[in-house]
Predict the structure of Extracellular solute-binding protein family 1.
Amino acid sequence: MMNLTPFMPVAIVRKALPAIVFVVCGSAFAQSITMASTTSTEQSGLFGYLLPEFKKASGLDVKVVALGTGQALDTARRGDADVLFVHDQVAEEKFVADGWGVKRYPVMYNDFILVGPRDDPAGVKGKDIVAALKKLAASNGNFVSRGDKSGTHAAELRYWKLAGAEVAKGSGYKECGCGMGPALNIAASSGAYVLADRGTWLNFKNRADLAVLVEGDTRLFNQYGVMVVNPAKHPHVKVQDAQKFVDWVVSPAGQGVIANYKIGGEQLFFPNAAK
């Protein structure tokens, strides 16, 4: 804060005071919640479209901490978030069962896709994700794994396990420990395969020679959930404001905003809170 000395001209003091009052008032009365979420909801552009609509409806700001789902859950366990918006249903249900979350609500879904070089040197193209990974492992094809305990990484590991190749994935298998956007960038620059969520892929501009090679397998279904962090674990959690977000995003108004988010005329996420 500015020091107002006896030697400071009155005109300067008069100019300074309104600015000082504005900052203090803005800090004191700003209403916001912190949401730990996935990189896919952030990097797909969904939050840039969704959250301004929530603010119009509620007056609340939402600060997003975008991480892999596993890291987002850890952030909430530490009490560093008020609400979670993630996509690993098994981990989410355990989070609630262990008392860290109040209640899990389904919100929306899309799907995972296997992306790779357009000429597909490993010959994986098709609808079967398990058969594709078996071929990829056998050919020692280059594969970029998120390796970050995200929902996408958890799904990828499930598919490798089904393929019987969870240990010997091939010499071309590399973990980047990074978000979906950076993983796609690495795949694009190195001609590698990568499992991606469709939302981030549709918003990804640096595709180079990458193309969608495997899609349509029912096992690639990708469900998102939302939940308030339990105040019994962390009393400082802004429960009422966090619940306002949950109630809005599963309401017809919030679900409609999700359905209306499109890139190039293609819908990225499909609301299913009512199902």
Q: What stands out?
A: The first strand starts at residue 32 and ends at 38. Residues 1-30 have pLDDT under 50 and may be disordered.
